[in-house]
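#help-structures
NK: newbie question, is this the right format to request a structure? protein is LacI family DNA-binding transcriptional regulator
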Amino acid sequence: MPTIKDVAKLAGVSISTVSYALNGTRSISEETKKKVYAAVKELDYKPSGIARSLKMKRNHMIAVVVNEFIGPIYQEIIHGVSKAAKKYGYEVIAAECFSEKSEITKVLSERFVDGAVILASYLSDNMIKDLAGDNFPIVVLDREIKNKNITSILINNESGAYEAINYFYEKGHRKIGFLGGPNNSYDNNTRYKGFINAMDKFNLDFPKQWCLTSNFTEEGGYQVVREFLENIPSKQLPSAFFVSNDEMAIGAMRAFKEYGISIPEQMAIIGFDDIELCKYVTPNLSTVHRPCFGLGTMAANSLISKLEGEKVSNLISLSSELVIRESC
């Protein structure tokens, strides 16, 4: 079945413009209306009557959109959103999003919910801008989007990464590697920026082979470090690694131990996020604390405040904190 996104693409307008034209909730030029109606007819698009009624009336339901349900970060954020929303009498729908054609995009564009919290890299900035509207606020957690109907809540990743390298430096480490996630990740890129800023500040060399890339998973961290160790002489190893999330750090620790490299005596490691598992791996993982539950509660509070007509900043920044345990 054709979706509202298909209509928007054919008509050459935004999703919100299609919605306004069909629901009559905002003044649209006659020329634009004609384009929208022609696209609707050509595609035989049938907008949901339920969706139209919900657009005109709140249903006290918000969506949380994430890349996947697997992983402690997403679980904590969803939990935070749900707990905060419940206090205001709002229900929460949690959905995975694997592409801009995922079913959840139709739920958002058709206004089955009152607003959304989005932590999904598969949705582009432009797509999110199209979905947001005066009566449909959105909160994003993994990027900064400048739009009056969108609030960006960010962790100070640069500062957290900088503090980790500063700690390594104070402990005498001068050879420090970096294990990062996908290059299209806002969190990874800002953490890498903080890492590089610190390396430059302390005038430390950073050979290309010490920069590793994986996919934010434990298995990914394990595999990329195994490959790294197979192809580099032991004399060329760094003495420490900063890893841009804890899951990869835990996988990296497993690989180092399999190669007989003791942690932290021969290889110090600091991760990022402070997931619960950090306290239970051996040695306990040092990390930069990211308040995931707090992110979720703040996202819900900000979104619902906007829905209730209150003024909310379009950019909110939360601090991070270095947590030293046994791995460095």
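mod (FA): yep, format's fine, and the tokens are attached above. The mean pLDDT is 90.
NK: thank you!
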